[in-house]
Write a structure and sequence with these properties.
The protein is an alpha+beta fold. It is built from six helices and 15 strands. The strands form three sheets. Strands 7, 8, 9, 10, 13, 14 and 15 form a seven-stranded mixed sheet that branches. A six-stranded antiparallel sheet has the order 2-1-6-5-3-4.
Length: 274
């Protein structure tokens, strides 16, 4: 069962207009949430970021209370105990081009699915295409994901599970659906600043809070020489990086990765809406 524009319906009967601007141009934003024990995690933070992305793309953000009810409805209708949820907001029905229709034409979809298991460690590949940290969509979680699709396919062709982007000045940025943390062996845990163009990940922010990690921009080449590193995302939580471009890191998981994972798990145990 999925929730579309205010009502639940079976997925097989759900319909999206062939004139939907999200389908035609990638004009949309989304959030992915994880479900623990039948409850969505970090809803407030995800809805705040959805509002930020909507504002950045010029879309009207749906009411937060309406979205909370929609999330609960989808969890209940699908019996999700441990799973993932996705909220998608698109520009809705629009002309065949870049122009939008009106705000009343926007489409809102909430869908859920079981959550798969990630490998214990991730092998990553640095892709040859940079993130544009000064682009109009930098820092927004939009449905314009073609660049990520190409990058992830590039990584998987090389036996890796995630692709890593540098930005236009050669600094480490992010993965296709993850943020990156690393240590250079000096006891410090760092992650790229938001000025690098990376997404302000919800899990990234929580890991920063529970570990005392710092934000610092480093060359993308620093990743392959890190003493340890890990990815964070809503569905991965904390996932240690095993290899970078085929080069094995010194520890996977290393002590800082283990501490970050334990700290995050403890946070989840304390509260589901931190």
């Amino acid at each position: 069962m999925v929730w579309i524009d205010g009502a639940l319906c079976p997925a097989e009967s759900a319909r999206v207009s062939p004139f939907d601007h999200g389908l035609l141009t990638g004009d949309g934003v989304f959030e992915t949430l994880v479900v623990y024990g039948g409850e969505p995690f970090a809803v407030r933070r995800h809805l705040e970021r959805l509002a930020f992305s909507c504002k950045g793309l010029g879309l009207a953000c749906p009411d937060a209370g309406l979205l909370r009810d929609a999330l609960s409805s989808v969890i209940s209708a699908n019996g999700l105990d441990h799973g993932r949820l996705r909220i998608t907001v698109t520009g809705g029905v629009a002309p065949l081009g870049s122009d939008r229709g009106g705000a009343a034409d926007q489409m809102v979809v909430v869908a859920g699915a079981p959550l798969g298991e990630w490998p214990e460690t991730a092998d990553v590949v640095v892709v040859p295409w940079p993130r544009n940290e000064r682009g109009a969509l930098a820092g927004l979680k939009t449905t314009s994901y073609g660049e990520n699709v190409v990058a992830l396919a590039y990584a998987k062709e090389r036996g890796a599970g995630e692709a890593i982007f540098a930005n236009t000045v050669g600094s480490l940025c992010e993965g296709t659906g993850s943020n990156v943390f690393l240590s250079m062996g000096d006891g410090r845990l760092i992650t790229p600043t938001l000025a690098s163009g990376c997404l302000a990940g919800v899990t990234r922010a929580l890991v920063l809070e529970v570990t005392g990690a710092v934000e610092e921009d480093v060359p993308v080449s620093a990743l392959s020489s890190a003493s340890e590193a890990f990815l964070t995302s809503t569905t991965r939580a904390v996932q240690p990086i095993g290899t970078v471009d085929g080069v094995r890191l010194g520890a996977a998981p290393g002590p800082l990765s283990l501490a970050a994972s334990a700290g995050f798990d403890a946070l989840v145990a304390r509260t589901l809406d931190p």
